[in-house]
User: Fold these one by one.
Assistant:
Number 1:
Amino acid sequence: MMSATSRRDRLREITRQAVQAEISDTAMRLFMEQGYEQTTIEQVGAAVGMSGRSVSRYFATKEDMVLQDSYDPLIADAVRARPARESSLTAVRRGLADAFAGVYQGDVEAIRQRTALILSVPALKARSREQQDSLVTHLTSALADRNVRNDTDLEIEVAASSFAAVLEVAVGRWARDGGDLPSLVDAAFVALGRLTRRSYR
């Protein structure tokens, strides 16, 4: 049975997450309405009924209000769960499809707008590179765990970096042009497969 202290801690965490979500959603609305650079933390605070200092307890920087989501562990777990008979490329391609099946149930347009904002603001784009590095790390770990073909560490890292780059291209096109993200990601991996086979003929 959960102790009274544990219940209080759990309630506190749920409350914190709810406040963070409200701040983030409000910030995104203001960023879209008046521009990212033109929107201050104080304005975000005023819109949610708190001071800028209080907002900073939930988000240390304005960038954090946009870049708070990380699906890397979810993607890595989905890749690990793919059958051992699949190649690394197929496992990542289908693992991403499995991961997106859950993520893509949310407000897709809001996710696309957030992604487009990240790619259009230099400060956000620079910070997003850290998330790209994180994805490479998670994919490298997942591919190493299911290394059924005895690939070398270098080969695994090169593969993970390549797959992360393919995903970045697909997400960038989706943010710019719209459409169906899972289909774009799948098409990008199909293109990588064709290019790989063509390169080694």
Number 2:
Amino acid sequence: MADDATKIDLGSALAERVKAFAEAAGSNVEIVVRDAVADYVDDWSETLKRLAEYDRTGVSFDAEGVLDRFQNAVATRAKSMA
């Protein structure tokens, strides 16, 4: 199991960018980095779940087609609410 704290060397250039981002966001470097890593791990976990589902079923969806249908549905809904 990992230690309570893991130290990561971001390198000076990235560390400065992260620091500037954290300050602009009203946060701190530790929180920004922790949140970014958590988001990455969560996204990767979701990707692996989707790949396993594809491997199991062979079913996939065209992202462009799905997005087009979603945008059309939103536009239709917006018109009906106007």
